[in-house]
Design brief:
Number of strands: 11
Strand content: 15-25%
Radius of gyration: 20 Å
CATH superfamily of the largest domain: Spore Coat Polysaccharide Biosynthesis Protein SpsA, Chain A
Distance between the termini: 53 Å
Number of helices: 10
CATH class of the largest domain: Alpha Beta
């Protein structure tokens, strides 16, 4: 098999278009593109990078790689949905891969594992990868990733849409059939969680989504409590979980309180007894403290997002 970086410059009949949104990703974009270019595949691949106003060395780095297109937009023009739509509109491939600039493919078969299921089954609209925590990832987040992204392949269907904290899809690393995207593009106005919104649309149409753990990327964030609270607030606001403010006020509070207790209890048990890293007891105490702060910030952010109900639902 050839590697993407070794392929001939003739890009006729592209099979796969890899769309990478980026902004100030100088620390990781080189690792990301190195891993992409090392993929061993028979698919003809093009790489499209959309930079939304980087002020660090991101642009200097990406120009060293075989990009088919480098699209530069202003920071205010970025949107999670509309920027990915922009990349897809310019893509030539039958399959469109979305990859975050801070997500690093783990091995040389990441791409094949994403695309092969789409080629084999026309009912599958999208495939997404397993996220492996980066070195130094907070242990509460390690636990979350292990719980939500196990080593077991899973098919998402319409019946699974309503589950709490159930990850339907993730454009951190994912492939979508081009004809499906043309019929169901991302919501260009959505604030965040464009992938979850898209997944609900295609699942409600009877299509399927595949979680493929054989395709793996290193990806995790050590968010500050403020960042975590803001992210969860935006996601909760976009979710439309409650029909009115009254139900959000009371049921949301119960969900918040119950969620905090359940998550913190699980975190403490995991950090003390189940996590695989060999760390001192004082380090475990620090990780538990970080988990406590993060869970409170996370659920408080969600609760505030649930309360942002538009008039008449």
């Amino acid at each position: 098999m050839e590697k993407i970086g070794d392929k001939d410059k003739n890009k006729a009949d592209i099979d796969v278009s890899i769309v990478i949104p980026a902004r100030n990703e100088g620390e990781t974009i080189g690792q990301c593109l190195d891993a992409v270019c090392q993929q061993e595949t028979l698919y003809k691949v093009e790489i499209i990078l959309i930079d939304s106003g980087s002020t660090d060395n991101t642009l200097d780095i990406v120009k060293l790689y075989p990009l088919e297109k480098l699209i530069q937009i202003k920071p205010e023009a970025f949107g999670h949905g509309k920027t990915r739509n922009m990349g897809a509109e310019r893509a030539k491939g039958l399959y469109i891969v979305f990859l975050n600039a801070d997500a690093i493919p783990v091995n040389t078969h990441w791409l094949n594992a994403l695309i092969d299921p789409l080629k084999e089954n026309k009912d599958v609209a999208g495939v997404f990868s397993r996220h492996i925590p980066k070195k130094g990832c907070y242990l509460y987040m390690v636990r979350d990733l292990q719980n939500s992204m196990s080593g077991k392949r899973m098919v998402r269907t319409r019946t699974g849409i309503g589950k709490l904290d159930f990850m339907l899809f993730s454009t951190v690393s994912a492939a979508i059939r081009r004809d499906v995207w043309q019929q169901y593009p991302f919501d260009k106005d959505i604030i965040i969680a464009e992938d979850q919104d898209w997944a609900k649309k295609v699942l409600n149409k009877g299509l399927k989504i595949l979680y493929e753990p054989a395709s793996m990327v290193y990806h995790s964030h050590n968010y500050t409590p403020r960042q975590l609270m803001e992210n969860k607030r935006k996601i909760a606001q976009a979710s439309g979980r409650f029909k009115n403010r009254m139900s959000a006020l009371f049921l949301g509070f119960l969900l918040m309180a119950g969620g905090i207790v359940v998550k913190i209890t699980g975190d403490i048990f995991f950090i003390l007894f189940k996590q695989s890293e060999r760390i001192s007891f004082s380090q475990k105490v620090r990780e538990i403290k970080m988990g406590l702060i993060a869970r409170f910030a996370s659920f408080w952010g969600r609760y505030n997002g649930w309360l942002k109900i538009k008039k008449n639902g």
